[in-house]
Specification:
141 residues; alpha/beta; Nucleotidyltransferase, domain 5; 2 domains
């Protein structure tokens, strides 16, 4: 706080704004540095297409894909399942696997909340990484 004496009215008190502005500038710089480091969104994994002209043998294909149809029916690798049994079935599948990765493929006409429920169930049973499949990935592009 600065004080000035003299003049007509006697003593006058004025706030020295310089230290307050310095603190404000330091805080702005800190927030500008921290903001880009915060993670955003979900980590996504994409299944890699097989090499051309070499389909993988079916017994070695350990990819688990949960398919959600337009009518909200579900399949795990072409095996039909209802939503209530999804968690238990995923637990059974991943019980003996070290790599806990699952992919979700939803119909384009579905709302995202239907896909998010499946992702939530998968994360709830302990699957480490849940990837989303798209038409381009499926076609190998």
């Amino acid at each position: 706080m600065a004080m000035a004496s003299g003049g007509k009215g006697g003593m006058s008190c004025d706030i020295n704004m310089t230290p307050m502005i310095d603190v404000l500038l330091v805080l702005i710089i800190i927030f500008m540095v921290i903001t880009p480091l915060t993670p955003k969104g979900l980590e996504a994994r994409v299944p890699q297409p097989p090499p051309p002209n070499q389909p993988p043998p079916p017994e070695n294909d350990r990819t688990v894909v949960v398919i959600i149809e337009k009518d909200k029916s579900m399949k795990i690798n072409q095996e039909s399942i209802i939503f209530e049994n999804l968690g238990k079935r995923l637990e059974d599948i991943f019980k003996t696997r070290a790599e806990r990765v699952c992919f979700v493929k939803g119909d384009p006409d579905l709302e995202y909340q239907d896909v998010a429920k499946v992702i939530d169930v998968a994360k709830g049973v302990g699957i480490d990484q849940v990837g989303l499949m798209t038409k381009k990935v499926e076609a190998g592009e």
